[in-house]
Fold:
Amino acid sequence: MSTPALHESTTKPLDLAWARAQFPSLSLQINGHTAAFLDGPAGTQVPRQVMDAVQNYFAGANANTCGAFATSRRNDAILASSRAAMADFFHCDSDEVIFGQNMTTITFGLSRAIGRELKPGDEILITQLDHDANVAPWRALEEKGVVIRQADIRESDCTLDLEDLKRKLNRNTKLVAVGYASNAVGTINPVAEITKLAHAAGALMFIDAVHYAPHGPIDVRALGCDFLACSPYKFFGPHMGTLYGKREHLLRFKPYKVRPAPETLPDRWETGTQVQELIAGIGAAVDYIAELGRRSDLGAKDRRSALLAAYRVTRNHEMALLAQLIPGLLAIPGLRFYGITDPQRFSERCSTVSVRLGDHHPTDIAKFLGDRGIFTWDGNYYAMNLAERLGVQDKGGFLRIGLVHYNTAEEVDRLLSALREFASK
Structure:
């Protein structure tokens, strides 16, 4: 028997019942309805394993680092374990993993450090498609005379205009900052290709992977990027941020830090005491995803292999839900859909969609759904450039529906039924 056939024979579909059982919040009742959490892009729910890791930290390892006593040594071991977990998640070395308050704060810190080496006339290239956390930190460098250029989108399907990006890359470009996936319309950008373009122009590449991380595997070695940031609370963990940086760049750029902080990695980028109990939760979140993979692929022996297996099976589940959701939305009279709708192009998107329904304010729709236990989001979701570009910023933005692996076909049916009811009012 060939290896591919053996691998296929040991692969199982997503164990949805087991996965949902790990999340205590999924049993929440609202006005007699079981809550349907379709708000994942703003923050996913948290499995019991993560809650236990945080509680166990406080019970037996609550101390600061590098102390000569038991709880401090346990603390250090937990931090090292979670850093190793994130290294497997990113596919990098442990000392290339930085923890921080959130992705936004981390990116502002990184932009200040990089900005120390920039001069007036140097350029940074951003996009219309990005969350403002991958815009404002770079625009802050305009104070130094740095020029910010912005790549446009194709309005018809809300995808990045790669030709426009190529035109705006030049010898003055020092950094390209692009999101892996749009948190508003779900578009997945060709970040590996863009990384090659950036490097060919002599620029660094920064990827905002916050929205992509719950939906697909990250491999910074394969991407070749210089920096990549994401937020564990978007992939079933606690409210923190993480950064991958190539070791050479983490050592090259000078971060702002307190004097006693070491110059070694990763400490030079983590000045001050971290939220150590939540870092314990980050490791548990990665291990939860890995367990999903082990349950679907009996051949996944190490954590990285298990993570890849998990994303294969959760991706299939999410795309099945998306194939149910999009046609149902398009059939609602007066609904406008933003982004890719063709199933043949689902490889270019993740399971997040944004819509508008006639002249109704998105907040009114979200409240109508919320009263029925269906949680969605309204507004611009900090993707202000995109909301302005599409002409909805001053109209309340969009209604966003975000599916992750713990969502069900029944929840999608409930959503579509409620939207049809609202549209008929």
Observations:
- Residues 1-9 have pLDDT under 50 and may be disordered.
- The chain is about 40% helix and 15% strand.
